[in-house]
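User: Could you go from structure to sequence for me? I need the amino acid at each position, not a summary. C-alpha cells:
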C-alpha cells in the first residue's frame, strides 16, 4: 500500500493457488483499499474503499487484469421507512 496525491493505492498480487507463482509481472494497482471480494466464475468482484466512497471492479483472475476500464462508484441508499 502507498499514498499517491493523498489517495491510498493498493498493489494487488494475483498468484496461482497450486504453486504460488504470480500471474502478472507487477502488482495490479488499485485506488483505495479492498474491503470485500467474492468469486464469480473465473473472476473476482472487488469492492474498494477510496476517499470515503465505495467503488466496484471485476478482476479477471486468469490474466490479472480488471475488466472495467474505470471503477464503478456505488451509491449508498438510505433505507426506506416502514
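Assistant: Here is the amino acid at each position, in order:
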Amino acid at each position: 500500500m502507498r499514498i499517491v496525491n493523498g489517495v491510498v493505492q493498493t498493489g494487488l498480487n494475483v498468484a496461482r493457488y497450486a504453486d504460488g507463482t504470480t500471474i502478472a509481472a507487477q502488482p495490479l494497482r488499485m485506488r483505495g483499499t479492498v474491503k470485500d471480494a467474492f468469486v464469480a466464475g473465473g473472476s473476482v468482484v472487488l469492492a474498494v474503499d477510496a476517499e470515503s466512497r465505495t467503488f466496484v471492479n471485476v478482476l479477471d483472475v486468469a490474466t490479472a487484469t480488471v475488466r472495467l476500464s474505470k471503477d464503478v462508484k456505488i451509491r449508498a441508499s438510505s433505507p426506506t421507512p416502514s
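One structural detail worth keeping in mind: The beta strands are 2-4, 7-12, 28-31, 33-40, 43-50, 53-60, 65-66, 72-74.
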